[in-house]
Amino acid sequence: MTGTNDGVTITHLEDGAGGKYVAEVPGEKAAGTLEWEPRPSKLGGSDKVRVATHTIVPPQIGGRGIAGLLVKRLIADAREQGFKVVPQCSYVAAKFDKNPEWADVLA
Q1: CB of 87 within 8 A of CB of 99?
Q2: Which of 29, 6, 19, 30 has its CA nearest to residue 74?
Q3: Buried b (16+ CB within 10 A) or exposed e, 37-60
Q4: Is residue 31 within 8 Å of 22, Cβ to Cβ?
Q5: pLDDT at residue 45 above 60?
Q6: What are the tens digits of pLDDT across the range 63-101?
Q7: Which of 10, 13, 16, 79 has the fewest CB atoms within 10 Å, counting from its CB?
Q8: CA 48: distance to chain centroid?
Q9: The whole model's pTM is what?
Q10: Residue 106 CB partners (closer than 8 Å, separation 6+)
Q11: What is the mean pLDDT of residues 25-35?
């Protein structure tokens, strides 16, 4: 699934049991990423929780709100697909603190 906002394209890629969101900016080689991994279920397998582990935006594309767009995409997918988010990444945690309306997807 891909999404576009102000020319930025965000793509979700599965990577083994986890995945990442990749933000591509037109005319730039650098891309921003938000990585996640599933939280193991106590019953085996995984429950419907994604742990946001890292958000990285290279300096070449910094200052454009790319990290925020990545988090917004994660939140939109959580609502659409019915999973919860553990904001292990400090940036994602700070965005949750500033957006109390996201409490419905907070694990």
Answers
A1: no
A2: 19
A3: bbbeeeeeeeeebbbbbebbbeee
A4: yes
A5: no
A6: 999 999 999 999 999 999 999 999 999 999 999 999 999
A7: 16
A8: 15
A9: 0.89
A10: 84, 85, 87, 96
A11: 96
Cβ–Cβ contacts within 10 Å for residue 27, how many?
Answer: 7
Determine the pLDDT at residue 5.
Answer: 57
Non-local CB neighbours of 102 within 8 Å, separated by 6+ positions:
75, 95, 96
Could you tell me the two tokens for 66?
């790319």
In the structure encoding, which two tokens stand for residue 101, read together?
A: 């309306």
The 3-state secondary structure of the chain, one letter per residue:
CEEEECCEEEEEEEECCEEEEEEECCCCCCEEEEEEEEEECCCCCEEEEEEEEEEECCHHHCCCCHHHHHHHHHHHHHHHHCCEEEECCHHHHHHHHHCHHHHHHEC
Token code pair at residue 21: 């969101």
Kindly calculate the radius of gyration of the chain based on its CA atoms and give it in whole angstroms. Answer: 14
